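hi! just following up on the protien thing from before. the input was this:
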Amino acid sequence: MSKEQMLGKYLDGIYPHILKGFNIQRISDDEQQHRGIDLVISHNGKEYYIDEKAQLDYLEIDLPTFAFEITYIKDGEQRLGWVFDKSKLTHKYFAITGIFCNTEKIPESGFKSCKITSVDRARLVNRLKSKGLDYERIMQINQEIRSGTTENRIAVNELDERTEGYFYYSKSGKAEQPINIVLKLDFLIQSEAAKKIV
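and the predicted 3d structure came back as:
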């Protein structure tokens, strides 16, 4: 079992307690998952497509931020990350942070706790836009980063690096060389683009 599958099992056990009143359906169809749907939750006739995004590289660490993928490289080509990829049908991201295992750093031992923040995709995009980071500006910054020499954490004028966020270029660490916008979860919650579930 992969870490994702093990975490999915744990989440399926806690969702009925934290999403009271919602009908919850886990999606196992590869095509739907590829379109950004891990869960379908429904309430009062309204359906929401959820993409679970978990910080599984940071077990036992409770980070105050979350990384939203802007672009990545595949087969030598730059592709749009999941935030702006129009083929994705996602309504909300479940940002899963602060993941703790029963036995430290051993996912096979099971999970004992995590935090889940629900980030509304449309509100996230609108919040960025209100900060001067519309799609065109984000793509401009993305190109400047890809054609420059700076990597890792990159501050931009539109965001307060301390309280809001920054760009991050994983040039050396990951094969896909993603460029992400790393945002403070508190900033997203205060600006009503996200809410804490647990």
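The helical segments are 3-18, 30-34, 121-130, 135-147, 185-190.
The first strand starts at residue 23 and ends at 26.
cheers
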